[in-house]
């Protein structure tokens, strides 16, 4: 069918969605009307939607994320286009797309108003982002979604799912659900962040969570000469090193709580340290690793802060000034980052796992289980239990 006019497949009148009507209250699976097309949108059938490790904490209020209700819960997903508005120019019925939950205001080019939010997760940090989320609140934990055209990123099925012997990459669809987690790190490590270069040494802290361990994998895929993983859980650090498939390029530094001890551990590894990538959770507010890692940076080093800290942290200003250190803050990623990253995956530059090395998968890159919407409690529990040891998804 042509994409120059409103086009649809034959759709049911209603569908199932995981809904929340009161903030922090338990969600319920409901049958609701199929979302209606608007200009600038597509309707897609959801095939898979990721369940991040702290999904329960988002929706029971533990993390105090702010979002409007009622809404359909959700996170990043993959869906197939079943209906298109009249202004679609590239998408066509039947295309498989990655559904990006990081939404930007269409009339906020350049980000002057800060109109950025996470669909169904967080209303952002400005009045403009809050206003925008009121109109785009519903997420992917549903059989169908209405999504902005610019947040539907086409996936090349032939390249991604084709047989390796035929020039494809041989992925299963669930393998691609590692993309949402890796994209967060790419926002900070890629061209719109601190732009890591092949051969550089990167400190990732903490590396033991789902986003940190994904950052380790991404650094290796982008050609890092060495990745130094910092974290408190030594068992997870060792598993991360083994699961990387490149243990000779991974070093582990257990965090002690004493910045001087951690600094000495970094120094003892020898060699130049180019980048410090931090993705600390709120619990790390008073950690000494911030100072330790910055103090260990070589002249001209770079720092990216992407964590969930709420308060201030102390920084060694003299070191930063005299060593010409660059500090970059980043929340999520830019729209162009999504296209770039998917391109890197489709070209085989960034791999979900290494087929040539016996199917080695990164520590957090395994899809462990799929859940139906009615099993949302089990899905949330399993995601929380796994932490960085893989991920689970909804299959609506």
Number of helices in the DSSP assignment = 11
The overall number of domains is 2
Largest sheet: 8 strands, mixed
The first-to-last residue Cα distance is 26 Å
The backbone outline, from C-alpha atoms, is globular
Order of helices and strands: EEEEHEEEEEHEEHHEHEHEHEHEHEHEHE
- Model regions low in confidence, pLDDT < 50 over at least 5 residues: 1-6
In the CATH hierarchy, the third-tier topology of the largest domain is known as: Quinone Oxidoreductase, Chain A, domain 1
The radius of gyration computed from the alpha-carbon positions, rounded to a whole number of angstroms, is 21 Å
Indicate the mean pLDDT. 92
The CATH C-level name of the largest domain is Alpha Beta
Strand content: 15-25%
Alpha-beta classification: alpha/beta
CATH homologous superfamily classification of the largest domain: Medium-chain alcohol dehydrogenases, catalytic domain
Number of strands: 19
Helix content: 25-40%
Identify the CATH architecture of the largest domain.
Answer: Alpha-Beta Complex
């Amino acid at each position: 069918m042509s994409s120059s006019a409103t086009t649809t497949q034959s759709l049911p009148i209603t569908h199932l969605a995981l809904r929340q009507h009161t903030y922090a209250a338990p969600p319920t699976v409901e049958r609701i009307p199929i979302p209606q097309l608007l200009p600038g949108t597509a309707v897609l059938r959801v095939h898979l939607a990721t369940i991040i490790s702290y999904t329960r904490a988002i929706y029971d209020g533990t993390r105090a994320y702010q979002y409007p209700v009622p809404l359909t819960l959700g996170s990043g997903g993959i869906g197939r286009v079943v209906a298109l508005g009249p202004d679609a120019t590239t998408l066509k019925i039947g295309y498989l797309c990655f559904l990006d939950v990081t939404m930007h205001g269409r009339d906020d080019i350049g980000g002057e108003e800060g109109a950025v939010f996470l669909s169904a997760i967080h209303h952002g940090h400005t009045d403009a982002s809050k206003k925008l989320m009121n109109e785009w609140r519903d997420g992917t934990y549903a059989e169908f979604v209405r999504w902005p055209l610019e947040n539907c990123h086409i996936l090349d099925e032939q390249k991604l799912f084709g047989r390796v012997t035929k020039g494809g990459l041989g992925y299963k669809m669930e393998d691609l659900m590692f993309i949402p987690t890796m994209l967060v790190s790419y926002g900070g490590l890629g061209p719109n962040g601190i732009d890591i270069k092949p051969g550089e040494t990167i400190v990732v802290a903490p590396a033991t969570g789902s986003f940190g361990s994904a950052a380790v994998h991404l650094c290796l895929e982008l050609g890092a000469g060495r990745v130094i993983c910092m974290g408190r859980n030594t068992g997870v650090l060792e598993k991360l090193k083994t699961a990387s498939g490149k243990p000779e390029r991974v070093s582990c530094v257990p965090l002690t709580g004493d910045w001087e001890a951690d600094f000495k551990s970094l120094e003892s590894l020898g060699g130049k340290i180019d980048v410090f990538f931090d993705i600390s959770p709120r619990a790390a507010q008073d950690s000494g690793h911030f100072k330790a890692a910055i103090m260990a940076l070589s002249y001209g080093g770079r720092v990216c802060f992407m964590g969930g800290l709420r308060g201030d942290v102390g920084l060694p200003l003299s070191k930063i000034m005299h060593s010409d250190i660059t500090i970059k803050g980043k929340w999520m990623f830019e729209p162009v980052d999504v296209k770039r990253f998917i391109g890197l995956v489709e070209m085989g530059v960034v791999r979900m796992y290494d087929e040539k090395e016996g199917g080695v998968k990164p520590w957090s890159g395994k899809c462990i289980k799929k859940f139906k919407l009615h099993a949302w409690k089990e899905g949330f529990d399993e995601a929380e239990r796994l932490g960085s040891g893989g991920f689970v998804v909804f299959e609506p």
